């Protein structure tokens, strides 16, 4: 009987010990999750990533916009033959700083845009992860899509103003050839004019096309990046995260593929958001009208205008963004420990 009581007592102590260990493990997990979703470091990381990325690739983005907006003339004439011709003519006509038209508004708004996209994707991935730690591909795509949907709140006005500034040189050059003058515009003046004429919704011209592009991009990009980022060596700090060059190359590859995949949507969005057209260029009433007219007058290849430029722009932009984000630059600046 005494032996039995002793065994019962031992079992009770063992059960109690296991229960305490489980509680400690759950508490540790909760603390890690809370630390993982500290918003301030993520916002700073997203902002740094966006500023560095945009500064590096903006001239290519400007060339991409001008190539996508140019329409074939009645006799098949084009202002720009290809990406290199556009770059050369723009630099010759507008100089080095002309290649950065519209960069101010882009850099100003890139901080919340990148913060929203990267943080929202992490948040929704966390929420959609099953109790056993699994995240199915469909859930990854949903998380990416929701992140893209949140992002367009900031992206649409930014893209609208940026495109006007980027395309102004092309429109001015065509007007000059025709012996006409085009009034110079600024992002501030354009925003004020749109707000005065159409209210806040004036800044959301082309939001449907922007959403179509950005939501689709995020659905493709984030799951592909996460899949690629699992390969390659891990860090030695016990976090289990990839070394920086794996994150960089994963961002490059996923960004390139996703950019090319959604390029037709980007062409439609760019054309819908171009407020000032050159003489003889067609106006579009909406997404379907733009698709129909572009297909009728320019053929299916028109939907891949600027595709190479877009890939060259998006690949390093997201490669840099993911590297900065995963390196935890903000955590280093703030003196806080990066979560596992």
TrEMBL record:
It catalyses: L-glutamate(in) + H(+)(in) = L-glutamate(out) + H(+)(out). Responsible for the transport of glutamate from the cytosol into the mitochondrial matrix with the concomitant import of a proton (symport system). Residues 1-28 are annotated as: Disordered. The keyword Iron-sulfur does not apply. Solcar repeats lie at residues 37-127, 135-231, 242-331. InterPro entries: MCP, MCP_dom_sf, MCP_transmembrane, Mito_Solute_Carrier. Belongs to the mitochondrial carrier (TC 2.A.29) family. The chain crosses the membrane at residues 43-63, 242-262, 311-334. This is Mitochondrial glutamate carrier 2. GO terms for biological process: malate-aspartate shuttle. GO terms for molecular function: L-aspartate transmembrane transporter activity; L-glutamate transmembrane transporter activity; symporter activity. Its main location: mitochondrion. Pfam families: Mito_carr. Keywords: Membrane, Mitochondrion, Mitochondrion inner membrane, Phosphoprotein, Repeat, Symport, Transmembrane, Transmembrane helix, Transport. It is found in: Mitochondrion inner membrane. It comes from the Eukaryota. One of its GO terms (cellular component) is mitochondrial inner membrane. The keyword Transport applies. It is a multi-pass membrane protein.
């Amino acid at each position: 009987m005494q032996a039995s009581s002793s065994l019962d007592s031992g079992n009770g102590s063992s059960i109690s010990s296991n229960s305490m260990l489980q509680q400690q493990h759950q508490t540790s997990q909760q603390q890690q999750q809370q630390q993982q979703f500290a918003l301030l470091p993520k916002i700073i990381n997203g902002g740094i990533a966006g500023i560095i990325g945009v500064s590096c690739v903006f001239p290519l983005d400007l060339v991409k916009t001008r190539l996508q907006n140019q329409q074939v003339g009645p006799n098949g004439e084009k202002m720009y033959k290809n990406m290199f011709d556009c770059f050369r003519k723009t630099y010759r006509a507008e100089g080095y700083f002309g290649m950065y038209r519209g960069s101010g508004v882009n850099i100003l708004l890139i901080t919340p845009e990148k913060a929203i996209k990267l943080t929202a994707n992490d948040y929704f991935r966390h929420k959609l992860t099953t109790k056993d730690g699994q995240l199915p591909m469909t859930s990854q795509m949903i998380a990416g899509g929701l992140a893209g949907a949140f992002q367009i709140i900031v992206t649409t006005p930014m893209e609208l103003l940026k495109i006007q500034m980027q395309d102004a040189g092309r429109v001015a050059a065509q007007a000059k050839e025709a012996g006409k003058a085009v009034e110079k515009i600024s992002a501030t003046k354009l925003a004020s004019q749109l707000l005065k004429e159409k209210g806040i919704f004036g800044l959301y011209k082309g939001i449907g096309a922007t959403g179509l592009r950005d939501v689709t991009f995020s659905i493709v990009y984030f799951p592909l990046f996460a899949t690629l980022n699992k390969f390659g060596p891990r860090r030695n700090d016990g976090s289990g995260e990839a070394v920086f060059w794996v994150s960089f190359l994963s961002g490059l590859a996923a960004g390139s593929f996703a950019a090319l995949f959604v390029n037709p949507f980007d062409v439609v969005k760019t054309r819908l958001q171009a407020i000032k057209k050159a003489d003889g260029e067609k106006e579009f009433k909406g997404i379907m009208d733009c698709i129909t007219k572009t297909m009728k007058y320019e053929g299916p290849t028109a939907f891949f205008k600027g595709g190479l430029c877009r890939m060259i722009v998006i690949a390093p932009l997201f490669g840099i963004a993911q590297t900065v984000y995963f390196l935890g630059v903000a955590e280093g600046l703030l003196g806080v420990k990066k979560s596992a």
